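INFO batch 0412 | record 1 of 1 | parsing
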Amino acid sequence: MRNENKPESNKQYLLVGKSDAPSIANGNTWKESEVVPVDSVLTFAPVVEMLSEGMYSPLKVGDVLYSSWGYEQTNVDFYVITRRTKCTVTLAPVNSIVVENIAWAHDKVVADMEHAKWMINHEHHAQSKTDDSCLNNKRIKWDGTEHVQVKISSFQYAWVDDGTPKTRTSYA
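INFO prediction complete | emitting tokens
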């Protein structure tokens, strides 16, 4: 008869962990303290489908992203994805529309969706060598949740735009 409370070879166990995590130090059994590989618990169907197709994030051509950045002012930039590879996207800048003036040098903006559609339909224009505003091969960072971001520069990241107005300020 096999002893159920013994470690098995080729398995990993959590020996020490937080007070609410099953571990040997917390008095749990070896079976309860077994560390299950991430691949075996990945059951979220859209994620599994994307990974099987070689796509490493839910971003797709046509998605609008926004970036909010700045020091003495808050800049809000919008981008549309015009091309996509497994790990990178090509972005084209999208105009913003002021939807509310809150105060002097302080307003709320949204992406100009008509301009975004135009940029997608005229990708060759957005990608032209004379247009320096296009952002090619920007890396996608995704942790498997709804938090997807694209690194624009050393100080600027972009996230999927949900359509809600974003606050921006300017400096005189």
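INFO post-check: The first strand starts at residue 64 and ends at 69.
INFO record closed
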